[in-house]
């Protein structure tokens, strides 16, 4: 029978080895930390974990940490543990029970924005916009599988051979995606996009060089005038960060409805704000609530402005329908290499879910989107707005754009080439 601690902290698995102790889950770190961890007595760690899971019933994580400290101090008094390693033992045991095990130090590092586990010995992080080895690894393939399945089991999210691809929002707001074998033939893969809680202001985004003050002021005026704006770019280009910053220009008296697949938007100082989040269906496909469903619902909630976190399917039609039925000022993002490419994608999305003639789709896009912003993460890790384009009309083949700002690669800045009116 599961102990109270096991029920409280989740369905993590105890794996017995030949010595009838918990499997080795000691992380490998670099530098001084690696030397300290190498000195930890794994048998003692396994003994303490085993006793905690079978004897103690802590009601909170604080109580669990206290119980771990008591157990460690007993070992200190008997001389089995060096005093200088006390905190390493406590943190390691705590993280292996309720945290993300060897990944927890990466989660606690504020300079890391993304964690990518490609295999037991291959973990990368994004730090300050650049990818680099994380300096940690798992003890075995089994250890990796236990950590990944444990993360999802504690949130009661199914991750199994029958459901091998699963998304999860962690308690701190971070997003996790896991893929199991055989979909990932080399073994389970885990990607965590951390929610850092750091929300750059418009001034801070300007200071970073993402765009200049003139462009930010231009966009601020466009938002106040309720012009609809679409931000496009690749994965981790900074679309949501820019959208969060631009939302600060929305007048506080407006009623805002946000619609997202997974809640990432963090709008500030908006008193009349309603957040809606899509829900995937069951394995049988029942109970799903799509982005398109939520946009329909938002239209019935007397919105002054609708913000869609990401457009990638049938919701594209509902979005232009909303913008063309008395709901201007929409803000949204999507994946596209350029403004022109994004408009082609939107056209294809809409044509795939409606019987509207192609020309009608183009005309609807022209009347529902005023400005397109393309943002990109450069090879050096910096985020830059590549262009701000005004939608000016369409011909028989495509939507026509007029550039207002264009990125100057030589001088690393945006250049204003028209007034955008």
From TrEMBL:
Residue ranges of domain Bacterial type II secretion system protein E in the record: 102-351
UniProt GO molecular function: ATP hydrolysis activity
Pfam family, one: T2SSE
InterPro entries reported for this sequence: P-loop_NTPase, T2SS/T4SS_dom, T4SS_GSP_E_ATPase
Domain of life: Bacteria
SUPFAM superfamilies assigned to the protein according to its UniProt record, in alphabetical order: P-loop containing nucleoside triphosphate hydrolases (SSF52540)
Transmembrane feature ranges: none
UniProt signal peptide: none
The family this protein is said to belong to: Belongs to the GSP E family.
Name under which the protein is recorded: Bacterial type II secretion system protein E domain-containing protein
Protein source organism: Mageeibacillus indolicus
